[in-house]
Structure formats: C-alpha cells, structure tokens
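As a next step, we paired sequence with structure tokens, yielding the entry below.
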Amino acid sequence: MANTKLTRRAFIGSAGVASIALAACGGGNGGGSAAAAFDGALTGTYSMHIQGYDWGCGVDKITLALNAPLDAVDVDSFVVSEHKQATDWTAEDFPVIEADFPRTVTAATVNGNNVELELACDPNSGSPFLYTMATGYNTWCDPYEINITLGEGVELASGGTAVKSIAIEPVAASKTTSADEANWSTDTFEAADGTTYPYAFWDPEEESKNLVVWLHGAGEGGTEGTDPWVTILANKVVALSGDDFQSTVGGAHVVAPQSPTMWMDQDGKKTYIAEDAKEVTTIYTESLEEFIDAYAEKVGAEKIFVCGCSNGGFMTLWMGLHRPDKYVGIAPICEAIPDGAITDEQIEGIKDLPMYFVWSDDDTTVVPETHEIPTVERLKKAGAANLHVSTTEHVVDTTGMYKDEEGKPYQYNGHWSWIYFDNNECACTDDGMKVFDFIAECFK
C-alpha cells in the first residue's frame, strides 16, 4: 500500500508511543561457523528497542544479527521502513489500514555479526502503537514489521566478499523497552468482585513506606492487544522511577494498574460521563480501592499518593472524593469530572486533602471551564488548606528536540498536560511549588 501520511488526533488519555532499547543478539540468523565461506547472501534477524518520550514511545533502535560480519557500515548502508497498522485520519470513519512508513537511520555501528541502527523518532513517527476510534484504545500494532534493504548504490562486504543480496526477517525476534531497562515489572491482581487488573510496578532499592499510584488515560485500558507496558509507555510513566522523582520524594514504590475498560466506565459498557452530568460514578471504585490496599500491604507502604491523567485524572479526583482520609495527597491532571457533578458535601469533604491540579488552558478534550476551573474555585471558597494549581497556555516541547515549520517549539495537543507533570515542569501559579516537591511534602 502506498505511504499514507497520518496526523495525530485528540482523545481522552491516549498519547502516542515509546522508544525501545535492547541488548544486541549474538549469532544472527543461523550465525554459521567462523570457517564457513560467505557466499554473498546476507541473512539475519533483528531485535528492537522501544524508547519512551514525552509524547509517547517509538522504536528508536534495531540490532541486526547477521550470518556474517560486515567489514563496515554507515547511515546509508541500509534503507529501513516499517509496515504496520495505522489509523487513516484522512479518510471517512478513520479506518485502520496497513501502511508503510520510511524510517531515518541516524547512526550505524558494526560489532562482529551484529549491526546496530539508530532510528529517528518524533511525535508523528516510529510508534509501535495503534490508536483506533472504533475501540478508543492504544494497542500494539499487529502487524508491526521492519523491512531492511541495501541502500541504492551501496557496496557492502564481509571479509572482502561483496554482499549480493539481503534477507532480514521482517518480524522482530525480540523487543525491549525503556521500562524494562528501568527495572519495571508486571503482574496481575484479581479483586473480590472478579475485576482483574494487570499492572506494572517499580520498587526502589531502599525500603520505603511511600507508594505512588499512577492511573492511566482511557486509551491505555482494555484487554485485547494490550498489556501494562502500553499503560506506562503511552505516557512517560517511567519518569516516576527516575532519579529526579525518586531523589525528590525520598524514595517510593510506583504502581500503575490497567483498567479492563476505562476508569470512567459507569456500567461496564464503556458508557462515558456526559460533560453536563449532574452525578458521576464508576464501576471500578471498590475494586481499585481493594487493589491499592492489597498492593500497599504487599510492599509495606503506609503513605499513598494518587495521580493520573485525563480518564485517570477523573479517577484520581474520584478516589479522593470517595476516601479523602485514605491518601496523603492527589494530583489530578486534565481531570474529567464535570464540576456540576461534584456536590457541595464532596467539596467540603475533600478540602483538607492536599491537591495539585494540572491542566492547559487550550484543552479541548476536557474543557477547563466546565471541569477544573469551577471546581478549584469552589475548593478555595471552602477553605482548601493545601491546594495547588499549575496551568499553561499551551503544551509545547521543552526539550528543544522538536520544532514546527517556523522553527518554534513543537506544540502538542492541549490535552497533553501530563507532559509537564512527567518532566517536573509544573509550577504552582500561586507559590511556584513544583509538583515533585509537593509530592515530597505529602510524604513527610
């Protein structure tokens, strides 16, 4: 199929992809004995690495395991493209298609029978995830294949013998992610009502009584074609196990449960809450609380902080409203509870809970004027004792890596304010307190 240019589209709680980093495979496709003569037919397999970025994740590196060592390689030695599922946002009804996308090789190194190719990733390319309007979920692309051919006019050789042909298996022999490298793991929990939560978790080396619960957006839920790696790679949740966060908060366990559908599911049928709803509920209140209790007991945590974005921001605030005495603090990010559905009694009940709200003014997915802004004002009037708010006009790249056609910082969808949370770039509009420092104070 001809290449199709796709554009990103707003949706509650789904971001793009993450990058990968994996160890090189030895030997290659068959490997062959050192004494075997190379006949010019280069064959092999590859492993891929997925790296997490602000905007999601992307395949940033592949390591070829070949049947013969190459004498030398450079960035022009191979032509690399990916063949994968993708949503065609340019067509009516946004169908899922299979399409081919070119990948740019930025570095190439050879080490024996292994060749490592580093690939450029950006907010619109390189993702191994598929988001579809039909399901509302991010899933692993199936298929996701990488095709590798010789560059035009390129002459490669092994021991002086020219490479005449190349055949690399298009499906990765293995994959690893930045979450693997950060020592995240996965497991499953079944609640008393039968709700099953796959979850990703990370434990600090030193004993800690602190636990951070991350609640994902709508796009990272589901049960088919997904797993907890999607939950922590679609948003840069790995940041919570990073040195910046861990050193600031004094060490904490981190756990990210995956909803079987979405946190805002009112009836088990993925029935969303209307923006003008006068009351809200979710089928996951009791089972999630049971999970959090069980996990806290498992790791010996005595202080629990809850945070999450979009659908997960909804659930973060909801869990605070449900049991404000249970948590040392919450950070709802672009949260999706309509203010009209929060009662005065709930506002009164939560006013003493430490809270840190995060949103962008140009969020059109969860509109601040009908969600956070009036809720925060009501909390202030109720005398909220420890209330912080961080807002921005837009969500833009702050790394300097991505720019628009005019050379200005790349502007993300306004809903993606979790990017600032992940990078500890939230600063309270009243006192400048950063969000990681706020969490640290909650744990004291």
In short: The CA atoms of residues 81 and 210 lie 44 Å apart. Residues 1-35 have pLDDT under 50 and may be disordered. The radius of gyration is 24 Å.
